Amino acid sequence: MKFExxxxxxRSYYDQIGYKMLASWMDRWPININLKIYHEDNLNVGSSTxxxxxxxxxxxxxCKAFVDRHKNRPDQQNSLELHKxxxxxxxxxxxxxxxxxxxDADYLIWIDADTFTHTNVTHKFLSSLVDPNxxxxxxxxxxxxxxxxxxxxxxxxxANIPFMNVWRHLYENDxxxxxxxxxxxxxxxxxxxxxEKNGVIENINLSxxxxxxxxxxxxxxxxxxxxxxxxxxxxxxxxxxxxLFIGKQNEYWN
Length: 254
Fold this sequence. Notes:
Blueprint (H helix, E strand, L loop, with lengths): L2 E6 L2 H18 L5 E6 L11 E5 H4 L1 H10 L19 H13 L4 E5 L3 E3 L5 H5 L8 E4 L7 E8 L5 H13 L11 H14 L6 E2 L10 H4 L6 E3 L4 H4 L18
Parallel strand pairs: 1-2, 1-4, 2-3, 6-8
Antiparallel strand pairs: 4-7, 5-9, 6-7
C-alpha cells in the first residue's frame, strides 16, 4: 500500500517550527513516502526527491477567495481565538481538500507542521494504523473535538470524494459560519459524526480513552514516533512532562 503525507505552512511558520518538522520528517520517514507542503507565500526550503512544495492559492483558488472574503471580519482578528478560527484554519482545510482528490496514494496522512518525528517511522507501523474497510484513522476525545494534528484518509474508500465535497461546500458557500465552531477539527468532526451516524463510514480512533483537552497525540501509539508541539509547546521545544499520562518506552520521553 502507498502512503503520502501532506502539511501546510507559510514562511513565518516555517521559520518558527516548520523547519524542525521538515528536517525530522526527512530524517526519519521512509524515502519512498512523499510529503506535499502547501504554502501561500512562495516558500522555498530547498529541493528533495520526496518533498514537493505546492502553491496553495494556485491549486485552490477557492481558498484565496474564502480568505479574501473574510480576513477583515472583526471576529477573525484575534489570532489566539481557536474556536472562531475560520480563516486561520482554512489553509489547512483546503490543503487537505486538494491533496485528497489528486493524490495517487492509497492513504493520505495529514501531519501538522509543528510535529517532530523523533523515531524512525516504518511502513509496518503505518500499515498497523489503517484498515481497507475503514475510512479515517483519527485521534478522538470524548466531550471535545478531535485532535486533528494527525489524520489518515483512505483515498480508496467510496466515501472519500463525497466527504471532501461536503467539507468544501461548507467553505465555498460560507456555511461554516453557521456551525457552533469554525476551526478545522470541529468541522471535521461534524462531517465525520454525520457519516458515522448514517452508516456511511467506519473509522479507527487511536485514542478512544481520550477526554476533554487531553494531549491524546503523544499518549497514543503515535507518541512512540512523534511529538506534536501544539500551542505554546512549539515555543518550549517539546511537549511537557505533564502532558504524558500513558508511559512510553522511547528514549525521547525518558
